[in-house]
Amino acid sequence: MSPGDTGDFFAVKEIPKRFHMISMETFKQAAKLLEGNVIRTPLVYSPTLSHMFGAEIYLKLENLQKTGSFKIRGATYKMRMRFEEIGAGGVVAASAGNHAQGVALAAREAGVSATIVMPEWASISKQEATRNYGGQVILAGRSLKESLERAREIAREGKIFIHPYDDPDIIAGQGTIGLEILEDLSATDMILVPVGGGGLISGVASVAKDIKPGVKIIGIQASACPSAYESRKAGKVTEVKSKPSLADGITVKQVGEINFGIMEKTVDQLVLVEEEPIAAAILLLLERKKILAEGAGAVPLAALLNGSLDVPRGCNVVLLISGGNLDSPLLDRIVNQGLLKHERIMRFRICLEDVPGSLAKLLTRIAGLKANVLHIFHDRHARDLPICVTRVELELETRGGSHITEIVRVLREAGYEMELI
Questions:
Q1: How far apart are CA 88 and CA 81, in angstroms?
Q2: Cα(318)–Cα(194) distance, rounded to whole angstroms?
Q3: Which of 20, 100, 327, 387 is exposed most, by the fewest CB atoms within 10 A?
Q4: Stated pTM of the model
C-alpha cells in the first residue's frame, strides 16, 4: 500500500496541533479498507431499556469487536494506510489497555512487531492480553501522559509511533462506527459516546453530522477525569487531575488537540457520570441484557441512569458500548456490591444451640422462605461464645428489600436472635 494523505505517521514529525476536519471520503475509504479485517458489530434494540427510559434504545456492541474494543478499528486502518513506512523496527504505542491490544493485534496481522508502553497501574489481565496478541509490553509511567512520553522516546530508535487518539488516521478508523450506526438505523436521533482522549467521539460525530446534521451527539465522561468537559468550559485543551475510576479506559487527563477541535464543531453536549451509576450500568447490562461492558463502555447507560441527560420521549437513542474488557476480580466486586446495594443479598449472624439438628432446622426455615444460601460459616470456637453455643454467619440471595424484611420477621418470631451485617 502507498502512504495516505491524512497526516504524518512519524513521532519525530508529529501532526501540527490545529483544527482538522476529516472528509467523508476518508471515512468511507477507512470502512472499505477495514471490511473483512474488523467485525461489523451489531446494533441491537433493547425493549427493557426502552421501557425504562421512555425512548427507543439501541446498543452498538463494540464489546463484541476483535480484542473486545473499538480500538482495533483505528489501529488497523493506521497500520494498513502507513504499511510501507513501517520498517524493521515495527511500531510503538502507549495505552492503559484497549489501544494496546488493538495495536498489538493489528501489528501481528500486518506482520510487524509492536512495542506497547503501559502505565505501571495497568491491569494484569490487559497486560497479558496485549502480550497474547503479540505485543512486547513495557511498564513505564504513573500516568498515560508519562507512558506516551516514553513511547515517543522509543520511537526515536526507529519505530513508528501510533497515538491512541490524537491522529487523523486513528479518528478515521474509529469513525467507521458512525457509518455503521447510520446505515443500520437511518432514523437515529441521538448517539451517546464515551469520551476519553476524544478519538472515538470525534470520528463518530464527524460522520454522523455529515450524514444527518440533526442527530444529537452526546459525549459521556467519568467525573473522576473530566478532561473534555473542563476543556469545553475553558474553551481550550485543559489538563485535569484524575481519580481512580471504574471507567479506567477513559481516564485521560488531557484530550487530543485535533480531537478537541472536531468535538467543538460536532458534539452537542458533554455529560459527567459518577462511579455509582457506572457500576449500576455494568450490572444492569449484565443482568438484563447479558452484555459484559467495561466501565468506559457502560458510561452511556450510566448517563441515563443518573438522570443527568434529558432524552426526548420516543426518540431513537444509540448507546455506544465501546468495550468489554473488564477484569474478573473487578467484575466480582461490582456484582456483589450491586447486589448488596439493591438488597438482593443479605448477611447476618445467628447463635444456635450446639446440638445435632439446630443448623438443619434453621436452613429448613430459610428454604421455606425461598431464600438461597450463598455462603455459610459455622464457628463454634469463638472466645465470647458459651461452650454449648455455636455462631453461624449466612449470606442469602433474596428478591429484594421486602423479602429481607419477611425473612427477618419470620426468623425473629421463631425465636432466633439475628445480627444483621
A1: 17
A2: 12
A3: 387
A4: 0.84
